[in-house]
């Protein structure tokens, strides 16, 4: 049998049916949820920034819920509250020192746990996990009981007492575990063949560490330092137990909230948030550049 075909010009062919794809309503669940969580998390920060420009009736007034736009008076008088300045000075003094010491100790612990197998490694990992998992109130009570035993003791001409030194010692203690876990995760993903290649090229273990190992784990070390710094600046529970007569920024804000928070708190909070945002931005661009290389 022969098939008969009918040729028709293209202009006479029927137009194809164009189907419009319709998205189901479930497609919008994740975007809406993400936007809602971003708004929920950033709303308090946004209000803090806005209320740093709130215009009040007079100098020295406490912050009120009513917003009256706008003034730069509190930014000009950012150092007008001496007690707030002392508390912020304590936080800015303790945080970097505790972060540096905790980073040094935590980096060594993270290197050992991530690289070597030894008797007691499981117990060490458990203790580090316990230091993170234990509620802060328990750790604060334990530190308070310990410092009470040491209060007034003299060691090498140094008198141990409650204050900045107990805050510093406490912040070092609970920050080490966070740094160790961060560095350990970086070390476990490290290619050991690079160190072996350096030693094959007659590099001593010390030279191989500073030339090869340290640059490779440096992002984890920096991340651990920043985490320890933020934890120290943010800590309230432990500092409230061991601070003595000194105040940190969070404990002072909590204490003055009963009488009313001065507008300078919002100004300093905005400054600290801006600094953190800049650091995060630089870290993001730095990681992208290193990834491109």
Could you walk me through the main structural features you see in this protein, from its secondary elements to its overall organization?
- This protein is mainly alpha-helical and 293 residues long.
- It has a domain at 85-248: Orthogonal Bundle (MetI-like fold), CATH 1.10.3720.
- The chain is built from eleven helices and two strands; from the N terminus they run H-H-H-H-H-E-E-H-H-H-H-H-H.
- Strands 1-2 form a two-stranded antiparallel sheet.
- Helix 3 packs parallel to helix 6 (164-188).
- It is globular and about 75 Å long.
- 24% of the residues are buried.
- The mean pLDDT is 83.
List the helices and strands and how they pair.
Blueprint: H1 29-51, H2 73-76, H3 82-115, H4 121-133, H5 136-150, E1 154-155, E2 158-159, H6 164-188, H7 192-200, H8 205-234, H9 237-242, H10 249-256, H11 263-292
Antiparallel strand pairs: 1-2
Helix pairs in contact: 1-11, 3-6, 3-8, 3-10, 4-6, 6-8, 7-8
- Estimated share of beta-strand residues: under 5%
Query: What would you give as the CATH superfamily of the domain at 85-248?
Result: MetI-like
Task: State the distance separating the first and last CA atoms.
Answer: 68 Å
Overall form: globular
What are the secondary-structure elements, in order, as H or E?
HHHHHEEHHHHHH
Chain-averaged pLDDT: 83
Q: Which regions contain 5 or more consecutive residues with pLDDT less than 50?
A: none
Number-wise, the strands total 2
Largest sheet entry: 2 strands, antiparallel
Could you please say which CATH topology of the domain at 85-248 applies here? MetI-like fold
Helix content, binned percent: 55-70%
> Strand pairing plus helix content: what structural class?
mainly alpha
């Amino acid at each position: 049998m022969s098939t008969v075909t009918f040729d028709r010009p293209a202009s006479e062919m029927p137009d194809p049916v164009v189907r419009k794809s319709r998205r189901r309503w479930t497609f919008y669940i994740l975007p809406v949820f993400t936007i809602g969580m971003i708004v929920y998390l950033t709303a308090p920060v946004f209000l803090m920034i806005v209320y740093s420009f709130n215009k009040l009736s007079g100098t020295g007034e406490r912050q009120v819920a009513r917003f009256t736009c706008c003034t730069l008076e509190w930014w000009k008088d950012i150092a007008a509250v001496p007690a707030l300045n002392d508390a912020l000075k304590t936080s800015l003094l303790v945080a970097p020192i505790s972060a540096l010491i905790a980073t040094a100790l935590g980096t060594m612990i993270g290197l050992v746990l991530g690289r070597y197998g030894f008797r007691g490694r499981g117990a060490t990992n458990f203790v580090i996990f316990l230091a993170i998992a234990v509620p802060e109130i328990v750790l604060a009570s334990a530190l308070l009981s310990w410092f009470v035993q040491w209060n007034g003791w003299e060691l090498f001409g140094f008198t141990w007492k409650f204050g900045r030194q107990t805050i510093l010692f406490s912040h070092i203690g609970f920050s080490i575990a966070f740094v160790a876990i961060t560095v350990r995760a970086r070390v476990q993903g490290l290619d050991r063949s690079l160190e072996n290649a350096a030693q094959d090229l007659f590099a001593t273990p010390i030279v191989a560490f500073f030339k090869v190992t340290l640059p490779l784990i440096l992002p984890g070390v920096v991340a651990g330092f920043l985490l320890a710094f933020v934890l120290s600046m943010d800590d309230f529970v432990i500092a409230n137990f061991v601070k003595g007569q000194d105040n940190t920024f969070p404990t002072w804000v909590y204490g003055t909230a009963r009488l009313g928070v001065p507008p300078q708190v919002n100004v300093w909070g905005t400054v600290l948030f801006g600094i953190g945002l800049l650091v995060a931005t630089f870290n993001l661009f730095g990681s992208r550049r290193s990834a491109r290389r």
